[in-house]
Amino acid sequence: MRKRNKVVGTTSYINRETGEIKEMEVIEADIYEKDSNFYKLFLQDFISALDLIANKKTKLCYWILTNMNRDNMLLYSYRQIADKTGISYGIVADTMKTLQEADFLCRQSSNCYIINPGILFKGTYQRRSIALSKYYECEQGKKLSSEEKRLQDIQKSIAKLQRQEKRIQKGLDMAKSFEESDNA
Q1: 45: closest CA among 72, 66, 68, 67?
Q2: CA angle 63-64-68, nearest 5°?
Q3: 20 phi, psi to nearest 5 deg
Q4: Has residue 76 got a pLDDT over 90?
């Protein structure tokens, strides 16, 4: 928060103890919140300037910036993105995966991505706070999904080991029965 003081004029005050009249400056204090560490970037002009040297992945990133909605969401599937940008499906899939790993965006569903408001946001700080909350919910859901996947992988490994144990036990039983028949 920042505080700005501004002299708005003078007024007369009477000192109660002495009865003396004094002229005093009247100061108006304005307390406000201000975002800092931001650059103004005129996106269309910036993209046009860099478009000359950009590769397909960079062009896809620019496309994402210009096609996200006011809630910091991109509402397109990989196929729709590929069709609209003219970039191959493989490059779109690879780039989107890389952007997710880089914490630039989070996949909420197959055709809904939330761009990290900690990196990029257009709007008021109140709307940014709401978008940050949604982004962190998405990230939390992704972490739960990865934990569930890890649990499933462990369960598959246990089942595989149990099957191997049964085969080994069956082999041991067969060897034991052969040994008993040879001794008889």
Answers
A1: 66
A2: 120
A3: -75, 140
A4: yes
Reported as half-sphere exposure (CB side, CA atoms, 13 A), residue 152 has a value of: 6
Length of the chain, in residues: 184
Indicate the SS3 state at residue 116: coil
Residue 150: predicted pLDDT: 78
Residues β-bridged to residue 10? 25
Q: Which residues contact 176 (CB under 8 A, 6 or more apart)?
A: none
Which residue did the predictor score with more confidence, 176 or 31? 176
Q: 104 with 116: CB under 8 angstroms? A: yes
Opening angle at CA 90, ends 143 and 46, nearest 5: 85
Question: Long-range contacts of range 57-65, CB-CB < 8 Å, 24 or more positions apart?
Answer: 57/91, 57/94, 57/95, 57/98, 59/85, 59/87, 60/85, 60/87, 60/91, 60/92, 60/95, 61/95, 61/99, 64/99, 64/105, 64/115, 65/120
Q: Is 150 helix (H, G, I), strand (E, B) or coil?
A: helix
DSSP 179: H
Helices 78-85 & 56-67, crossing angle to 10 degrees? 110
Q: What is the C-alpha separation between 10 and 155, in angstroms, rounded?
A: 79
Q: pTM for the whole thing?
A: 0.52
